[in-house]
Amino acid sequence: METTLNAWDVTRYGGPDVLNPVLRPVPTPNANQILIRIRASAVSRADGLMRAGQPKFARLFLGLKRPRSGLSGTCFSGDIVAVGDDVTEFRVGDAVFGEAGLQFGANATHICLDQAGSLLKKPAGVTYEEAATLFDGAMTSWHFLTRIAKVQPGDDVLILGGSGSLGTAAIQFAKALGASVTASASTQNAELLRFLGVDQVVDYHSEDPLKRGFSYDVIFDTLGVSSFGAAKPALKKRGQFICPVLGLKLLHDMILTGLCGSKKAKFAAAGMSKPAVHREELTEVLELMTKNAFSPVMDRTYPLADLVEAHRYVETGRKRGNVVVV
Question: Please, where are the H alpha helices in the chain?
């Protein structure tokens, strides 16, 4: 068995260039842990925000001067190569996927996690690359649409940022839930959105999706590009503005709309839910995949050694779906 692992260290907050390759000893799992040989890991916009320490108040949880864990990456897939003496849920050879959470370290060759963590066995019909993305865009979008907005059949849903990892998942989920879906994207991504089942595509370069004269039950801002104030006129009487990117303005709007008014602004840290919640939601996502109601959109795959280039590409804002390193 290998004795050293390759990983990426975040020495300070900043752009992609703060990432540095490092060699570390492969950890030995304790009684309740499993050691995973990583086959693929996601590179998401959320990873970039954490690397940059944005928004700044998030550093209270991540680390004041640099990420406390020091390593990059949260979502991964791979094979179990060793287990602790008390592990009962998994065995050596199992293909799994999961999330490292605030431990980070998924952009690596190995990771050691507790068996009770956010881990699931990978179905044979799901590739390692696809599985590595599910705890990011797929789980977040599913959580927001089903647990936060509670989308119902016949609802009108607007998705801002339809071509990213959250957006491409949200489109498929909203359609599977029986909603009528409008989504914004650039002209070059319009055909992709139509392929995913969008009822109306809005080219945000030529038209403001919030000023078209239509009203929606749910507006899902997947990128944090808008605000409750801008979206409010386009919401129906009991409409909801939901966003996974928390800023002080959204926090203010959440508190205010929680106290009064029929239109609501909502945020949830889906990745911070308990592992049991993660497993429940991802099981539901996997069921949709077996029914061909959802498939992760894959954009680019990079070697692990090119993690900096993968981060740079994600930061261009031009990715279509998901990016992984292998």
Answer: 45-52, 59-62, 128-133, 139-142, 165-176, 190-196, 228-231, 248-259, 275-290, 307-315
